[in-house]
Automatic annotation (TrEMBL):
GO terms for molecular function: flavin adenine dinucleotide binding; N,N-dimethylaniline monooxygenase activity; NADP binding. It is an enzyme of class 1 (oxidoreductase). Gene3D superfamilies: FAD/NAD(P)-binding domain. The keyword Phosphoprotein does not apply. Belongs to the FMO family. Its EC number is 1.-.-.-. Keywords: FAD, Flavoprotein, Monooxygenase, NADP, Oxidoreductase. This is Flavin-containing monooxygenase. Pfam families: FMO-like. The lineage of its organism: Eukaryota, Viridiplantae, Streptophyta, Embryophyta, Tracheophyta. Its cofactor is FAD.
Amino acid sequence: MSTAVAARDVAVIGAGAAGLAAARQLRREGHSVVVFERESLVGGTWIYTQNTEPDPLGIDPTRPVVHSSLYASLRTNLPRESMSFREYPFVPKKSGQRDPRRFPGHKEVLEYLKDYASEFGLGELVRFETEVNRVWRMGNGKWEVRSRKIGGKEEEEKDEGFDAVVVCNGHYSEPRIALIPAVDGWPGKQIHSHNYRVPEPFRNQVVVVIGSAASAVDISREIASVANQVHIASRSTSAEEAAMLPGYDNVWLHPMIERAHEDGTISFTNGFKIAADVILHCTGYKHHFPFLDTKGIVTVDDNRVGPLYKHVFPPSLAPWLSFVGLPYKRVDSRHIIGRILLPSQDEMMKDVEAFYSSLQKSGVPKRYTHNLSGYQFDYNDWLAEQCGCRKTEEWRRKMYSATSLNRQVRPETYRDEWEDQDLVLEAYQDFEKQISCKDVSLKLQNFKI
Ligand SMILES: Cc1cc2nc3c(=O)[nH]c(=O)nc-3n(C[C@H](O)[C@H](O)[C@H](O)COP(=O)(O)OP(=O)(O)OC[C@H]3O[C@@H](n4cnc5c(N)ncnc54)[C@H](O)[C@@H]3O)c2cc1C
């Protein structure tokens, strides 16, 4: 992501999808790259673990952190073709115990990311089981990175200087909780979806699920198979729409919770009241950079990480500090990370201010700053253009829309039934043009049969 042609020493924090892609491109540009990774393997979020945090709501800042928020049954909510890195298609593999489904389980995504890292020799750049504890800028403009081996002693901490730091630490680990009036006096249990793994603990319980995004949809349906009742509280349900979820006899949709009560009941804004055992917050995550000290230049304010030019560069620190992978509700810009020519610091700052003020004028809360819903492809294309890369493929755009529509029409079965087979064919034809890969050819042969 550097404007400079000279080789630089760059630290990348995190070896998830974003860190791997950033490391690959930086090395291609001739930089010397060290990727710091807490875990013992690449893949980030996609490394499933049964472990959960001792604080089920994830609000205790001293708690031991579990990075991944995956639940055991998770399958992707996007088709594998549209999750593909452009130069390394995510195609079904014949070998071993791979999951060939178009919307595969989480293990398959992890395998794909491991394959990606090994295809491009990225593992050799990664310092595994090494946690970054502090990153700060020295007087000479260089960045100091303090890291420690997991389980290592404080005196074994190591400080190293880098020209640039790319932050790719993920943004699905620090829970955001719904504010529920009087919940402190409510006697039930609360948990955030970050700590949800399997439905069994909810057997015979009355569960209130808050949220309406992908995790809330998946988890509430899964819990319904064992729970006594599931009540989904969602901003997107109006009082008039409150009803039983079609296809279920124990799941109800409600508008938001009004308050909790000391007698164990929860009341909703539609007047409905229920005695509940558990509140499950599927309410998303907060951006969190506990290791980053920019002397207040970059802050997180109501989940806006800023000021950031195009969600990547703090103008006064660019290009020496950058953030990759912040935007969400995106198809993904991972496939177009490359070199970008930056305008002046002043111009970048003006652009950021204009962007923030346009959000304010449209009444968009700060916490949705990095939500690119509705213009993610324009953003990707803009980035691609700056980097001299091809724009988003037409099939990728169309497939995203087709999947979103299919998810609405077939919320229960969209991962196994679809009508965009023509786009799948287009995707594979495109993959074949870019890369000669045995698995792509095999898949194309299947189309021809
Ligand atoms: C439940 C769930 C379902 C999802 N489903 C999909 C889907 O279907 N399709 C899709 O495209 N995306 C999905 N996503 C989004 C997914 O997070 C992204 O696709 C992508 O994997 C994010 O990659 P990342 O590299 O930004 O972050 P991560 O994958 O989170 O990687 C960050 C890495 O940084 C490391 N790290 C963090 N802090 C430190 C530190 N201090 N020192 C050293 N290392 C550190 C972590 O260990 C981790 O390996 C889902 C996310 C969640 C939570």
